[in-house]
Design a protein that fits this description.
The complex is a heterotetramer. Chain A is an all-alpha fold. Helix content of chain A is about 65%, strand content about 0%. The radius of gyration of chain A is 29 Å and the shape is flat. Chain A starts with 16 loop residues before the first helix and ends in a 6-residue tail after the last helix. Chain B is α/β, with parallel strands linked by helices. In chain B, α3 packs across α4 and α4 crosses α5. Chain B is globular, with a radius of gyration of 21 Å. By secondary structure, chain D is mainly alpha-helical. Chain D has a domain of about 170 residues: MetI-like fold. Chain D is flat, with a radius of gyration of 24 Å. The chains are: A mainly alpha, B alpha/beta, C alpha/beta, D mainly alpha. Chains B and C meet through α6, α7, α8, α9 and α10 of B and α7, α8, α9 and α10 of C.
Chain lengths: ~325, ~325, ~325, ~300
């Protein structure tokens, strides 16, 4: 609690007796009802989504995140096209080059162009991230939604199953599935789908349960809305915000897992270039050619940063607790 | 409590299985939220249901509207037993039986504008044939509860508690029901706003002949608005009578102490009043005392009170009391 | 005027929140005399709780408090440091809050929390503090206090927790007890118990009590003097008889006529106050009640009336253009 | 309490059964089992056949499963298919201590740094420390552990040369691995502690502690910290699982002879019995840790009761 200088207009609202005597006529007449400012809402009307959008637009970090992701998408789509190299094109005359005009990010020990390889990595990372997050959202929303909406024994059984799977760290399952399916991009997505939706399912269920207990759902029942209608008109629109936030955070996690698995050698196999594979490849020569590590490492970190910033921004914009 | 009752609750029971959740699985206990409650409400009248938190009064209202499936007993509405009806069969009654909620902050969907909140029941029950008609009707309803055109396309969070409660009333009003459960409709509101809502409810009863089940913990408001009053304690109806009979001649020791605990806004009367201060707390409804639920706090306990839950008995003029002291 | 136990002059409290500044208290004068039972009544958001929390410096960091004078028991509170202020709390000033369910730390035993002020202010040893704690629990009507001392808050009911809060507040024998909506969260029968206990405590300890509530009934049955607040300002103040039987301010009158009376046999029509309380983020100029007032005049929307002595009773003050000096002005103008 | 623990153990047993069964059948369904002709080119088919019957791989899968479950019930996880002289049990016994030392140090470091940092940034909200910890937290959450590891290795071992690049045995060998493992948990605990502290400081009981004259330091130390640390305690369970992920990277990069490195090696060598065995061990270990954390929570928070 600080003491600050007086705010303007604070004292001035009182008049002295002398001033009262000098007041113009009519001040002591009845104030007509029409001039009373009652029940008037001055602020413009905004819906939840409009409000969330303007909050998000006002968040510089989240907007920066969007820009970075847009650039990453551009890199993934156009990157390999704007350079005259293929990602697996070896050229022994230009091995381990440092960045220059021909090879923007330099070349690796086989003379492959690192820029093109990083751009390919962006394709893989973004695909894995978005695909895994989307599939898991679908599974999680359906599973958690049914569990929370139906409730009772079904809910108990479904959640017991989630508990049983969740008791074991999902990484173990992911690695097992990778071993089973082999090192491909689609195996990573499938492996992530194995356990990844559990968290989403729990959040969706909790969300549905908490909305279900709100009086407006009872009110919908009282006016005679069917369960399906209540689900579509009330439960889903109200749980959308937190679901979007959860899914946004799933993307960087999936990207992390892909990079991690590729790094420890069971993710994407050479010669296909993923950021994790590139980082792993550069390890042996790191002391001499640090740039081989730098670019993939930067790409991974920046992308995950960007998605996390977007997620934080969305959470601030969509979090109902911040609203009255 | 006349013969032309619009709504009758007969031996209504609503028990919940409560899972005591802590670490581990916990055990299931039965919570007798409503235990054998009977009353009837005459057409165009207001039945006030009073009691402290956890006494089961809200559950009574919700069970009547079939938001819960009654464990036992029946609800008769306008001569028809609605207890066993399926949702489809009950659908026409949804139009006739409405509800106003306690918490104006959670009873309106935050994602829907006022026009949708009030318009939804109109569309659902085919009370309007076109969008234009619906918009007209919504405007009319908004005006009826004292709001303005400017408010129609706004979202709930932009309103104050009292304004929200008016929107809730407009939603119930939209279908021109016959019977409305008012579940603590004013307890979340400020004093100066409470009277606005009470007056709206009274005005509509006069204009449209609504029948109310008015649930409240506030004995003064219940006295003001009700024609008949029932008092609940721990899931049981302990006393019921016409309003002036009940307030003037209360028989159940719980009702007596409840009334005497109400603070009155009159310093001289308050000073001169002899108050009965009840000892202790309301027992847990999960673990109610044997026999009469009130015996643990009662001043006039008899040996029989611990053995047997007293039955409601008419002591004349429709005044019913469940107390062993009345029977001996 | 130095005889007052607590004296507040021109207190203003602002909260900076996202989107603007809430002018929660906008300049109030208030005093509490030794041993009196003062009630502060008003609706939610009128600034009644914020006033007390401002004086006790218990507000969050986004609050700005200014005053011309704050004095307790002859000492100037404005010049006092945070630490000195804190040393008075729990010792000379006891406080109880609205929600007994959340006002006790769930992780510590009741005994631990009752003994806290005793050990801090009275520098008691563990044994002595425990004896005093048992005595206090017994005094507030908690049976088998020795065992209850070892229990945690969640093992107590709401009413019992409020008794514990009272025991904590009274344990150091304070000169002033501030009770902020102490019975609002409780059921009627429990509310009666707690009010009875507070009156009892008042008689035993003869501490001045300041009761903040929205419930006129609670005020009528406990207080001797009342302050009515609205929109961050004091509208009217006086003895309970003044306020309840001779209200001068349209807001007080409105409040009294909008409550239903449990003893009323006939059906008197309630006359509610129309509209809603003002938005203190953009407080209206002039009297905050103007928009809802039946007798509002043009000046009410322009300038704020000062709290002036009324003619009906000693110490009866009203802030309204219809009364006092201002009213004379009206007559003059009417001529 | 005992009943609660028993119930939890029963639930854990079911989870384990699911894990073991899933792992077992997945590992046996992988195309190209060990000792198949074609996989091992230099070994005569006769020898392979002998090996297959020695390990029981010629039996139907369900019989292998029953055999495996039977030996598992005696605590025997079988032989490694690749390191032919080792049993899986021996591998675990030799690898676990190193992993445990690094992991335990990382937990201690994460709590010792994260908790105080979270508290201070909550108390001095908007101050430079708050900013610093927020930046650190964002980095810790967004930067994959292997990048942090490589960065630290590059700076401190290769360029500054003040710490060994890899190896295990002395305290200086432990510094970078422990920092790497603890980095992301520190970030998470700091954020968790900060928001929890902010939440707690808004609670009524904090205000009423102030109102009874408790000094600001004691309000924070006694009432604030204990209440706000509860979410951190619940985080310790998942934290152990996160350290597991980290250990795969760290042990591989820094050549620490731990379980994580054996596991990654086994995965790339397709040593199915080792994968199976270590997975079971990890699963059991983590479930035990989660149970202990839950019990610890109930001791700190009197509201939580062990019901049966």
């Amino acid at each position: 609690m600080k003491k600050t200088t007086d705010l303007p207009g604070d004292e001035a609202e009182y008049l002295t007796e002398g001033e009262i005597a000098c007041l113009p006529d009519g001040l002591f007449e009845r104030l007509p009802d029409g001039e009373k400012q009652t029940d008037v809402i001055n602020r413009p009307s905004v819906s939840y989504w409009e409000n969330a959008r303007s909050k998000l637009m006002a968040d510089p970090l989240a907007m920066a995140g969007f820009v970075v992701i847009a650039l990453m998408i551009a890199l993934a789509v156009a990157g390999p096209m704007i350079r005259p190299y293929a990602y697996d094109e070896q050229n022994y005359s230009v091995i381990n080059q440092t960045p220059d005009g021909d090879h923007w990010f330099g070349t690796d020990k086989f003379g492959r162009d690192l820029f093109v390889r990083v751009a390919y990595g962006a394709r893989i990372s973004l695909t894995v991230g978005v695909a895994a997050a989307f599939i898991n959202m679908v599974i999680g929303v359906i599973y958690g939604g049914i569990s929370g909406f139906v409730g009772g024994r079904t809910d108990m059984l479904m959640m017991r199953i989630v508990d049983i799977i969740m008791a074991v760290p999902s990484l173990l399952y992911i690695i097992l599935v990778m071993v089973f399916l082999g090192a491909h991009m689609h195996s990573i997505i499938i492996a992530l789908c194995f356990t990844y939706w559990l968290g989403t399912a729990r959040i969706v269920r909790a969300q549905i349960l908490s909305i279900k207990s709100q009086d407006f759902v009872l009110a919908a029942k009282v006016i005679g809305e069917s369960d399906l209608k209540i689900l579509l008109r009330h439960l889903i629109p109200n749980s959308m915000g937190p679901i979007i936030v959860t899914v946004t955070f799933l993307i960087p996690q999936a990207i992390f897992y892909e990079a991690f698995l590729s790094f420890i050698g069971i993710g994407i196999a050479v010669p296909v270039a993923s950021w994790g594979t590139l980082a792993n490849d550069s390890l042996s020569n790191m002391n001499t050619y640090p740039h081989l590590m730098l670019f993939p490492a930067l790409a991974i970190s920046i992308t995950i940063f960007a998605f996390n910033f977007i997620g934080d921004g969305l959470r601030d914009a969509l979090d109902p607790r911040l609203k009255r | 409590m006349t013969a032309d009752a619009l709504l009758k609750a007969e031996n209504l029971k609503m028990f919940f299985d409560i899972r005591t959740t802590a670490l581990g699985k916990g055990s299931v206990k039965q919570l007798k939220a409503v235990n054998d409650v009977s009353f009837s409400i005459g057409k165009g009248r207001t039945f006030g249901l009073v009691g402290e938190s956890g006494c089961g009064k809200t559950t009574v209202g919700r069970t009547i509207l079939k938001l819960y499936k009654a464990t036992g007993g029946r609800v008769v509405y306008d001569g028809a037993d609605i207890t066993g009806m399926g949702e489809r069969e009950f659908f026409p009654y949804r139009r006739k039986m409405q509800m106003i909620f306690q918490d104006p902050y959670t009873s309106l969907d935050p994602r829907q504008p006022v026009s949708e909140i009030i318009g939804a029941p109109l569309t659902l029950h085919r009370l309007v044939s076109s969008n234009a008609e619906r918009a007209d009707r919504v405007r009319e309803l908004i005006h009826m509860v004292g709001l303005k055109d400017d408010h129609i396309n706004r979202y709930p969070h932009e309103f104050s508690g009292g304004q929200r409660q008016r929107i809730g009333i407009a939603r119930a009003l939209a279908m021109m029901p016959e019977f409305i459960v008012c579940d603590e409709p004013i307890s979340a509101l400020d004093v100066s706003i409470q009277a606005q809502i009470i007056n709206i409810l009274e005005e509509f009863q006069e204009r449209f002949g609504f029948t109310y089940l008015f649930i409240s913990h506030d004995l003064s408001v219940v006295r003001h608005i009700s024609h008949d009053v029932g008092v609940m304690y721990l899931g049981n109806l302990v006393e019921a009578a016409a309003v002036n009979e009940l307030y003037g001649n209360m028989k159940h020791p719980y009702t007596q102490s409840l009334l005497s605990a109400v603070p009155i806004a009159d310093p001289v009367a308050a000073r001169g009043r002899k108050r009965i201060i009840l000892e202790g707390d309301v027992p847990s409804p999960l673990d109610p005392p044997s026999g009469c639920p009130f015996r643990t706090r009662c001043r006039n306990v008899l040996p029989v009170c611990a053995q047997e839950n007293p039955k409601l008995a008419d002591i004349g003029g429709g005044h019913i009391v469940a107390c062993h002291n009345m029977l001996v | 005027m130095s005889g007052h136990l607590l004296e507040i002059q021109n207190l203003r409290t602002d909260f900076s929140i996202a989107g603007g500044v809430v002018r929660a208290v906008r300049g109030i004068d208030l005093f509490v005399d030794k041993g009196e039972f003062l009630g502060v009544v008003g609706e939610s958001g009128c600034g009644k709780s914020v006033t007390m929390l401002s004086v006790m410096r218990l507000l969050s960091e986004n609050a700005t408090v200014q005053a011309d004078k704050l004095a307790f028991d002859g000492r100037d509170l404005l010049s006092q440091g945070h630490k000195k202020m804190r040393r008075m709390l729990g010792d000379e000033i006891g406080m109880i809050f609205q929600d007994p369910m959340t006002s006790l730390d769930p992780l510590y035993t009741i005994g631990n929390q009752i003994m806290e002020p005793l050990r801090i202010h009275r520098k008691m040893g563990a044994g002595e503090a425990r004896r005093r704690a048992v005595e206090m629990l017994d005094l507030v009507g908690i049976s088998s206090p020795e065992q209850r001392l070892k229990q945690y808050p969640h093992e107590f009911s709401g009413g019992m927790r409020q008794r514990v809060m009272i025991a904590i507040a009274m344990s150091c024998n304070p000169k002033l007890l501030i009770a902020d909506e102490p019975t609002t969260a409780l059921d009627v029968t429990i509310q009666a118990q707690i009010l009875e206990l507070m009156k009892d405590m008042q008689a035993k300890f003869s501490a001045a009590t300041l009761l903040i509530t929205h419930d006129l009934g609670v005020i009528a049955s406990t207080c001797s003097r009342v302050v009515v607040m609205y929109g961050g300002l004091i509208m009217e103040s006086g003895s309970v008889e003044d306020i309840f039987y001779h209200p001068m301010h349209p807001y007080t009158t409105g409040l009294l006529s909008s409550i239903s009376d449990v003893g009323d046999t006939g059906k008197k029509k309630l006359s509610p106050i129309p509209g809603s309380p003002p938005d203190l983020m953009n407080p209206p100029a002039g009297c905050p009640f103007t928009a809802r007032c039946d007798s509002a005049m043009r000046i009410c929307a322009k300038a704020r009336p000062a709290l002036a002595a009324s003619e009906t009773g000693v110490g009866h003050g009203v802030a309204c253009w219809l009364t006092g000096a201002a009213a004379k002005g009206t007559e003059a103008l009417a001529k | 309490m005992t009943k609660y623990v028993l119930k939890r153990l029963l639930a854990a047993a079911i989870s384990m059964l699911v894990l073991i069964t899933a792992t077992f059948f997945l590992m046996h369904a992988v195309p190209g089992s060990p000792f198949n002709p074609g996989e091992q080119r230099n070994v005569p088919p006769k020898v392979l056949e002998n090996l297959r019957s020695k390990y029981g791989l010629d039996l139907p899968v369900w019989k292998q499963y029953l055999n495996y479950m039977n030996s598992l019930s005696h605590g025997n996880l079988g032989y490694s298919f690749k390191k032919l002289n080792y049993t899986v049990n021996e591998l675990i016994v030799s690898g676990f201590p190193a992993s445990a030392v690094v992991g335990a140090l990382a937990i201690v470091a994460a709590l010792a740094v994260g908790v105080p940092l979270g508290i201070t940034s909550a108390l001095k909200r908007g101050g430079w420390l708050d900013w610093l910890s927020m930046i650190l937290a964002t980095i810790g959450i967004s930067m994959p552990i292997f990048i942090i590891a490589i960065l630290l290795m590059y700076v401190f071992s290769m360029k500054l040369q003040i710490l060994p690049i890899y190896g295990y045995g002395t305290a200086s060998h432990l510094v970078i691995p422990v920092v790497c493992l603890a980095f992301s948990p520190i970030a998470y605990i700091t954020r968790l502690m900060r928001s929890s502290m902010l939440e707690v400081s808004r609670q009524d009981y904090i205000r009423s502690a102030r109102a009874r004259g408790v000094s600001e330091f004691m309000v924070i130390a006694k009432h604030g910290v204990r209440n706000s640390i509860l979410p951190v305690v619940t985080y310790i369970g998942p934290l152990i699982a996160i350290l597991l992920t980290g250990s795969f990277v760290v042990e591989r990069l820094f050549m620490i002879p731990g379980l994580g490195r054996y596991f990654v090696t086994a995965v790339s060598e397709r040593d199915y019995s080792v994968i199976l065995g270590i997975t079971i061990f990890y699963g059991a270990f983590i479930m035990l840790c989660t149970l202990l954390v839950d019990i610890a929570y109930a001791i700190i928070d009197p509201r939580v009761k062990f019901t049966d």
